[in-house]
Amino acid sequence: MTISSPPSPGHDEVQDATAQQTAAKRNLWLHFTRMGSYADGEMPVIVRGEGQYVYDSRGRRYLDGLAGLFVSQIGHGRKEVAEAAARQGGELAYFPLWSYANPRAIELAERLADLAPGDLNRVFFTTSGSEAVESAWKLAKQYFKLTGQPGRYKVLSREIAYHGTSMGALAITGLPAIKEPFEPLPPGGVRVPNTNFYRAPAFVADDLTTFGLWAADEIERAILREGPESVAAVYLEPVQNSGGCFPPPPGYFQRVREICDRHGVLLVSDEVICAFGRLGYYFGSQRYGYQPDVITFAKGVTSGYAPMGGMLVSDRLMEPFTEGTATFLHGVTFAGHPVCCAVALANLDVFEKEDLLGNVRAHEAGFRATLEKLLDLPIVGDVRGDGYFYGIELVKDKATRESFNDEESERLLRGFLSHALFDAGLICRADDRGDPVIQLSPPLTCTQEHFDEMEQILRSVLSQAWTRL
Ligand SMILES: Cc1ncc(COP(=O)(O)O)c(C=O)c1O
C-alpha cells in the first residue's frame, strides 16, 4: 500500500508542523467539519501536490481519489497553469465585469460557447457553484417576469441532490439535514425522486428503463401538482453526486426534455461536478445526449488553480435583456476575474494538449472493472457511476440490501472509515447523506495503476470495517 514516505521531515519541519497545528486549531474554521473532533487529534494539513498525489505537513503522500473536491481534473502542481495566473496578474489582475469586459473573460466565454452543446453560447460568470445555481434561478425568475409569465418561480430538484449552500441554492438542495438549521428558506423548492436504481421502489425495480421513465414522469406529475404556470425550472445533475453517483437510466433525460418543453419549464443541467471531463466529455449533457436550457459549472473549469463558476445559456434566454432597458439585476464583484479566466484558459489548454477526455474514455471501463472487484466483499452492496465518477454503497446485508442504522453509520463512517482510508493513503469521501457510500472522483490523468492502488486500499480498509461491525 501506499503511504510512501519521502525523506523524513527534519527537526525544524516537525516544529513548524506543530506550530501550524496550534494556529490552525486556534484560528481556522473548516467547512462542513466537526471542529470538536480535532480537540485531541491532528487536523490534516495538505501542503503540496504533484500529479495525482498530495502531501501533508508530515511528509506523507496520498492518492487524491477525489480530485480535492471533484475539482483537480488536470492534477496538482502544473507550473504552466500557475504561470498563466502570474502573467495575467502582472498585466491586469482585476477589473469588474460590471459594465466592462476584459480580454481573458471574452476569450474564455468564446471558448466555452464553442465547447458547449447546441445553442448555449452566452456565459455569465460567477465565483462558485452555489452562485451559478442561484444565478440560474434568478435568471429564470426575471426572464419569466419579462416575458409575461410572472407566476413562474418554483424549482424542482431531486431528493438528496446537493446544489450548493447559499440560501437560494440551499432551497434547491434536497438534503433535509443541511437545510433544517437555516429554515425558513426562500419558497419554491419542490422535490422529485432521484435515479437510485439500487433503491428503486418495488413496482419499478425490475427494469432500469421502466424505472427511469417512472422517475422522469414523476417530474411531470410534480409540475402538474404545483401548477405549470408556477414552475420556472428543473435542476438535474447529469450524474447525481449526493447519495453516491446515480447515473441517468436510458431515456431519462430525453423524457425530461419532452416534459419541460410541454410545460414551458427550463431544464437546468447542474454540471458543477459533471462538466470538464468528469464523464469523458466537456459537458455531462453531451454524454447523455440531451440539450439543457442552462448549464451551471464551476470546479473543473479551472481545476482549482483559481476559483470560478458560471452558467451557460442560449440567446433565447438572453433575448429579453438584449433590447431596450432591461438589465439582469444580478452580479458579484469577482465574476470573470481576469486571473481566474487566464487560469481556466490554461487549464483547457492542458485538456487539449493531453487529450484528457480521451484518457477518461480509454480508461473508464478499467476503472469500473477494478472497483467492481470489490463486490466480492460482504460490505459492498453496489458500485455505480460513469466516467471517472463512482460511488460504492456499503450495506449490512447484501442479500436484503439492508443499510446501517444511524448509530452504525456514525461508528462506521465517521468513527472508522474516513480516518482509516486517509491513514492508508487514499483521499476519497465516506458520506452518509443518503445511504452510506464511498465516493471516488480522481484526476482525469489517472490510469490503471491508480485504480489498482485505490482498489487495494479500499479492499483492505473495508475488510477491516466489516470485522468491526
Ligand atoms: C452539483 C453541485 N452544484 C452546486 C455546488 C456548489 O458549488 P460550490 O461549493 O462551488 O458553491 C456543488 C458543490 O459541490 C455541486 O456538487
Structure description:
Mean pLDDT is 95; it is low at 1-7. Helices cover 41% and strands 15% of the residues. It is built from 15 helices and 15 strands. With 469 residues, it is α/β, with parallel strands linked by helices. The longest helix has 21 residues, at 448-468. Pyridoxal-5'-phosphate (PLP) is lined by residues 128-130, 133, 162-164, 237, 241, 270, 272-273, 298, 309.
Features:
disordered N terminus, alpha/beta, 15 helices, single chain, globular, binds pyridoxal-5'-phosphate, 469 residues, 15% strand, 7-stranded mixed beta sheet
Radius of gyration: 22 Å
Helix content: 40-55%
Strand-residue proportion: 15-25%
Order of helices and strands: HEEEHHHEHEHHEHEHEHEEHHHEEHEEEH
| Model regions low in confidence, pLDDT < 50 over at least 5 residues | 1-7
Ligands: pyridoxal-5'-phosphate
What is the residue-averaged pLDDT? Answer: 95
What is the overall silhouette?
Answer: globular
Number of strands: 15
Report strand order across the widest sheet: 4-10-9-8-7-5-6
The rounded distance between the terminal residues' Cα atoms is: 24 Å
Coarse structural class: alpha/beta
Major sheet summary line: 7 strands, mixed
Number of separate helices: 15
Oligomer: single chain
Topology overview:
Blueprint lengths: L10 H17 L18 E5 L2 E4 L4 E4 L2 H4 L8 H13 L11 H13 L4 E7 L2 H18 L7 E5 L8 H6 L3 H4 L9 E4 L15 H19 L4 E6 L15 H12 L2 E5 L13 H5 L5 E4 L11 E6 H8 L15 H16 L2 H17 L7 E7 L2 E6 L11 H18 L2 E2 L1 E3 L5 E4 L7 H21 L1
Parallel strand pairs: 3-13, 5-6, 5-7, 7-8, 8-9
Antiparallel strand pairs: 1-2, 2-3, 4-10, 9-10, 11-12, 12-15, 14-15
The structure holds pyridoxal-5'-phosphate.
